[in-house]
Write a structure and sequence with these properties.
By secondary structure, this protein is an alpha/beta fold. It folds into two domains: about 180 residues, Rossmann fold (3-Layer(aba) Sandwich); about 90 residues, UDP-galactose 4-epimerase, domain 1 (Alpha-Beta Complex), CATH 3.90.25. About 45% of the residues lie in helices and about 20% in strands. A seven-stranded parallel beta sheet has the order 3-2-1-4-5-6-10, with helices on one face.
Amino acid sequence: MKIVITGSLGHISKPLAEELLQNGHTVTVISSNPQKQKEIEALGAAAAIGTLEDVDFLTQTFAGADAVYSMIPPNNYFDHTLDLRAYCHRLAGNYVESLRNSGVRRLVHLSSIGAHLEKDSGIILAHHEVEVKLGTLSAIDITFMRPTSFYYNLYNFVPQIKALGFISSNYGEDDLIPYVSPFDIASAIVEELENSTVHRKIRYVASDERTASETAQILGAALGIPDLQWKLVSDHEALKQLIHIGMNTQIAKDLVEMYAGFHNGKLTEDYVRNRPAQMGNIKLTDFAKEFASAF
């Protein structure tokens, strides 16, 4: 198959490209960074250097492909001019136009846990709206991948652990957190890209499930801080912390609303009803070793 991958050589896209190439597929990787071209080609893939903001570039790159993997690249949450929902809507619109014009018939899109919610999901609401927009592509078979909480998001707590000796947020203690590794997401995407029998599908991907307190215990053991705790604070306190470190105020509010969804269970309710038949291979105890090395 001829497959186009967005996301450059990011956490998911690089192992995804490697696995697809190992399986004998022809892979093109889109990157906005010209300096990535040699690294992409060294993998055995073709590099398409351009931006997701350019519909003509996307249309030309997608043309002739059997399948596309799409995603919304992360943005700078500390940019006070960023309208995150508008950014996501714009890129989704670009995908719709370019996919429709290029004749692609198979799409696997990276969405998120919580994308089933039409409100009260914070920054995840944009993923719901992107799913709706992509869903208008009636002639294209689509799998929406809904990964859970990425292990690497735990790195955001490193400054707090170093400064205060504990983790705190407006979710924590006994709240359930399903985690996922980018490598397990990549393998699941490969399975979906190679599955040609799907018209519309939602697939959750997770590697492990732990409470916040269990997470603190596992990370603490790896760090040599056996009494590390994950404390639950109010929404107000969590928002104050994010604004204090300079985050875009609207994004901070949306993050706090998302975290509240973990605490009250709204964000994970559909995941719990539709858990993956099999968890991924990389567990929190595995990630904790990486976390400790980076700490």
